[in-house]
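quick one, 185 residues, struct below
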Amino acid sequence: MVNEIFEHAGEHMDKSIEALKRDFASLRTGKVTTSIVDNIKVDYYGTPTPLNQVGSVIATDATTIAITPWEKNLLNDIERAIQEANIGVNPNNDGDFIKLFFPPMTSEQRQEIVKQAKAMAENARVAIRNVRKDANNKIKKREKDKEISEDESKKAQDEVQKITDAHIQQVDDLFKSKEADILKV
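---
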């Protein structure tokens, strides 16, 4: 009966961790990756469309991303979308494709990105704690409705805490790894 609550809580906490991984992927580290532009949407015939669905996006080297649109008439729309996304670089449009040249990061920029990563990690922790709170409330409701005993309720809440602790530890590990990646020169 309470196993469903454990599974539900675990699944939702796993989703929080997956969301954190996606967020971390959008942060810039020492080497440029195409995931930096994953959240950029281009106006494609009136529909906001992810940049990687209107052209090929490749990292040509450690500091350059090249975007080749599948339709040449999208060059200006892509350029505008990149400027509006404010990712720290200006697009260079040569008529066939767009190149993004990322300068080497300063230590201040690295510290700023670490702050962003820390905020993302804290948001993930809060989401996990909210799942824990929901699970505990469901357990307490079952105890109140006399579906489970007080001892079973206490054991179930302890189990929810163990699941929570494991997921919080995953968040901390992911953050430490990402922080080391960002600060590595």
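The chain has two domains: 2-26+106-183, 34-101.
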